[in-house]
Amino acid sequence: FISERQPARRRNEVLNAVANAPVLTVGEGLDFLQDGGIIRFLKSGNRIRFEINPDAATKASLHLSSRLLRLAEISKNPGR
C-alpha cells in the first residue's frame, strides 16, 4: 500500500522498482494510476470505491478476477 502522504519521489521509486514484477500495488493518491499503480482507493461521499489500471496489472503479469473488475471503475489510458 502506498499512501498519498508518501513523498512523490519515494512513491515513484517504489512503483519503478516493482514495475515489471508480479506485485499488486495499491494506493490512494490522485496520480497513483497514472504513475503505474494497479488499484487506487478513493472516497466517494461516505463510501470507499476503487479504480483499477488493467494495463499495469497485465504489465505485472497479474490476472484480476472478473468479479473484482465488475466492482471497480476501470481507468482508461491512465498514463505511463
Which key terms come to mind for this protein?
alpha/beta; 20% strand; 80 residues; four-stranded mixed β-sheet
Write a structural description.
A hairpin with a 2-residue loop joins strand 2 (39-44) and strand 3 (47-52). The chain has 80 residues and is α/β, with parallel strands linked by helices. The longest helix is centred in the first third of the chain and has 10 residues, at 8-17. The chain contains 3 helices and 4 strands. It has a 4-stranded mixed sheet with strand order 1-2-3-4. The mean pLDDT is 91. The two termini are 20 Å apart.
Average of per-residue pLDDT values: 91
**Roughly how many Å apart are the termini?**
20 Å
**Relative helix content:** 25-40%
- Which regions have little confidence, pLDDT < 50, spanning 5+ residues? none
The proportion of residues in beta strands is 15-25%
Radius of gyration equals: 12 Å
Q: Going across the biggest sheet, name each strand in turn.
A: 1-2-3-4
Describe the largest sheet: 4 strands, mixed
Order of secondary-structure elements: HEEEHHE
Provide a short characterization of the protein structure.
This protein is of the alpha/beta class.
Write the SSE topology.
Elements: H1 8-17, E1 26-27, E2 39-44, E3 47-52, H2 54-59, H3 66-71, E4 73-74
Parallel strand pairs: 1-2, 3-4
Antiparallel strand pairs: 2-3
